[in-house]
Amino acid sequence: MKTIVGLDLGGTFIKVGLVSEKGKILKKEQLPTLGEKGRKVVLSQMEKGISFALKGEKDILGIGIGTPGLVDKEGKIFSAPNLPDWDNLPIRKIFRDKFHLLVVVENDVNTITSGEYIYGAGKGYKNIICITLGTGLGGGMVLDGKLFRGSSLSAAEIGHISICYDGPKCNCGNIGCIERYVGAAYISQMAEDAIKKGRKSKIKDLVKGDLSLITPKIISDAYEKGDSLAKQIWEKVGIYLGTMFSGLVNLLNPEIIIIGGGIAQAGKVLFDAVDKQIKKRAFPLLAKDIKVVPAKLGTDSGIISAASLIKLRY
Ligand SMILES: [Zn+2]
Fold this sequence. Notes:
By secondary structure, the chain is an alpha/beta fold. The chain has helices at about 40-55, 90-100, 110-120, 180, 185-195, 200-205, 215-225, 230-250, 270-280, 285, 300-314; strands spanning about 5-10, 15-20, 25-30, 60-65, 70, 75-80, 105, 130-135, 135-145, 145, 255-260, 290-295.
């Protein structure tokens, strides 16, 4: 059986595993990243993880690596947050020379997009938009069956599409970015503001009055209990996202929009609101068959998606 090594490099942990060609995890391991100890140590941790996955295996198709930061077409990391001494690191070359196997490196959201395309919710489609929604909003796209990488270092920075020309300032320097409305902290802020203005909500009971403890998960829990503020917040998030997606639907005419990340767990209320907004705003002919679905690869998605990068190249 042919197998692939998938490595998901995170700020805290390196998750690595051996994956079958069909996307099943055969073995896996987790190691601390140790980013604070510098690049040499991180590279050695990665090497340890890859060696574990390769041990006793013969028919390896390659090693796929998903990493934070900006990665160029040669698999060189341009810069990575939380790994300050990683600028201009030729990570693909390093591991190709070490293991003499095909190595593919992509940034983490492109990696997740590839995983959903090859093994997950996007299987069978050719035009896909994928976002991960958590602290921030990351994006990736498959167009005409190819991962879209743009002309230089980065594309599909969907989180930094502005939905309001005079909106709040974003960390990226732009104004009114979608991330500034639907990032976890801003969703929590919506609840906090409403409660401070006197709105009654189960959200307040769930955090025992300490509004600084509100998270999107708490808002979801309140929604499950029939809370009207929670429902309103998810609908609002759906309107923000749907507004942004409508532009992308008109621009790209995708078949499917995949939403992953912690906030996607808000579930049907959010997906319905996004779908409704797209149908309301985008060209009817482009919007009518669009599917808005949750990401399908579960807890091991980082490893499986990294492995999928090798299938993407085959
Ligand atoms: Zn921004």
